[in-house]
Amino acid sequence: MNRLALLFCFVSLLASAQPAPDAGVPDSTSTVGPPPTPAAPRASSSESRNERAAEEDEEDARGAARTESRNERASDRRERRREKEKRAACDEDYLDEEMEDLAILHPLELNVDGRALTPEVIELHGLKRLTEDQVRAFIGSPPAESRAPLHTRHLQRMLRRLAHTGLFARVEPRLRVPEQGPVVLEVLLEENPVVTSVDVEGLQDLQRTEILDEVFRLPPRFPDEDEDDEEFTATLRVNGVRGTLTVSKPCPPQRPPREWLARMERDEYRPGLVLGGVTAALQRALRDLRGDGYMLASLSGTLTPQGHLTVIVDEGRLEGVDVVGVDGSIAERVRAALDLKAGDVFLRSDARRAMERLESRLPFLQAASVDTDSDDAVRRRDARIVEERAADGVRHYRTQEAQRKERRRREQVEFDLSWRELFESWRHGHDGAGITLEGRRLVVHVRPRRPDLDLELLPVHTQVTGFAPGLEGSLRIWDSKDRLHTTLDAAAFIPLRWGGQRLPDDPEGTKRQRELNLLGGARVEIPAVGLAELGGQAYDFTDTLDRWRMSDIDSSIYSALLNRPDRDYFRRKGVAAFATFRWSEDWLTGVEYRSDRYETLRSFTPPLSLFRRDSPPFPNAPVDEGRFQSVIARLEYASGTPRDAKVGSLFRTPETPLFHGDGDWGHSPFLHGFVTLEVGEGPAATGPDERFWKLLGDVTMVVPTGWETGLRLRLRGAGGDNLPEQKREALGGWSALRGFGFKEFKGDVSVLGTAEYRWHAFGLFADLGTVRGAGEWQDARLGVGGTFHFTDDVRVDVAWRTDEKATATPEARLFFVRTF
Hints:
The protein is an alpha+beta fold. Among the domains are: about 95-190, Roll (Ubiquitin-like (UB roll)); about 545-815, Porin (Beta Barrel), CATH 2.40.160. About 20% of the residues lie in helices and about 35% in strands. The protein is built from 13 helices and 39 strands. The strands form nine sheets. It has a 17-stranded antiparallel beta sheet that branches. It is elongated, with a radius of gyration of 47 Å.
């Protein structure tokens, strides 16, 4: 139907386009009145033909004019297209800037007695090393012998190119109006100095080539010798026909040829004109030096008329170190910790490392905030090179520091936002916080450290408490004289009544296990005698001796998710006293006394976990109950431990070290080991008290072979005699013979060896361990697996056992904290 309607529309249009018959013309077969005379019609036809001929001639003339106009517009479009293509072929930065300048800057005009004169000829004067032909060819000017008039736009472009070449120290245009001929544009040129040879003096840390590379560095994207050619010709052969193809640049060269300029090539100096001048070259080198951290560096030099340049480098040596904020012996200790002496070359990175050493060796001090000029670092980098010319033609160069801005007094609080300062802080961080420079003297601003208060959440989740949120806090009070530093520690967590957890048929036991858990302690540090900690603790809380296997956070996570805490717990109530000596930065020696009462805890039913809620509660091993007293001696070593490393904790056990922190992959080799000997007495299984002892040694070594690549080795051995049940040894489970069940092998003595190789994010490991129980050693067990590292601590471990119970399905865990 649509097609039929469209067809009718076309038919209607064709019908309406047909001419209608003329009603005023009679039919040829009829006769009306007398016949007309033939003369009158012939005269009328002749006049009509003449009028139509005149109209046709006029129409032809108008058509020719329109055609000519179209041709002119097409020619203009082609010209604009060619100009656009030419601009596209040339360097965008140069041409865009040039066309913008030419659109703003109007041509030169000279008005004399009301008559406008414009220069049409250019003359160059003052050239010495370069020839006029070379300069004219470079700026796109016709040869000197050519007297063809130049357009003012062309002259303007040539002046601009002369000023931007970097070859001339001065470009001075003048107009000369001769009596006969066109106006002449005379350009007086002063070439930049020619340096024929260079000497560098005063170097200590820097190399000669480093300075010369900065002084005679050419701009980026500077053409090499091959690109300097104006054109090149290639020979082509197509279907047996041989021809040549010539490719030429549509634009004049943007930069001078390399052979004209002073430059460094393959660590060798090549004489020539100094691009931009010696002052600009030295200025650039000085700015780069200070930007690289040589904040006190300065440059000076001389240039003889024969072209010999002598550059004298002062890398910036300190004249002294002043300490503000402390006095007396503490100030001397600050200078010793900074390890910056008069006469040393000062770098920005030296300031950062010096403050790190200060806060590590003297942790009771910290960098003080300094009200300095926010543009001080920029002001130092903006130092100027000043040129002075002597009467004998020798040019002298020296560094002139920028003047410090006067600080204005603020009547009200103001916030100054400086993007430059913000970007500098991103680039350099807090390099040299608390350090200022007064001339060539280093001023260190320090102040006593304020008390440190650290609070941490304790999201405890175990099979014997359920979810027990808590809080751990530590308050450290520093002594500004470094005599006695005090630390107060406390922690508390309480089991919540969630999920209907209870001990079946034991409401009193359920109530006891939901009691509040409390720990508190105080300790002091006396650096003068090497005492790292002297103090005591009192506690009544749910404790474990399995922290060496898995961290607190990992155990709580898997207890809440899968009902697999992989730990045994007991209630411990008592007091402890301890003293630890740090007789060198890497060594600790300590002794501890404990008087504890142990109580067995049972697993709650049902388990409070996100998954496996229908599974039985994770079993918790019973302990030998009663009061035990013991003395623990300790010897510990950790290589490369900083002076401010934390020693000790509120949750201290003989199974874990006192030094906090461990070696990271990708750094220097690291060795950490400790030995503890515990001797005590307590209720025996047979009744009366009996004495027991336990010796434990744990050594870990990291051997990097590359960045985030290396080998980690561990050897742990422990054993004793008459050990209470909670202190007996057991292997199996994560970090303690991976791939096997939790505490699958028990005894009085155990030996565990671990080797782990890491290659970036991937790793392989093997655990080998054995246990001695009932007077004989069990067969050694081997667990193997792989690791995927997200960071040094966060990783996924996959492990298989290799004994007769081995299966293809591995054990896998995601860990957030590394325990060894």
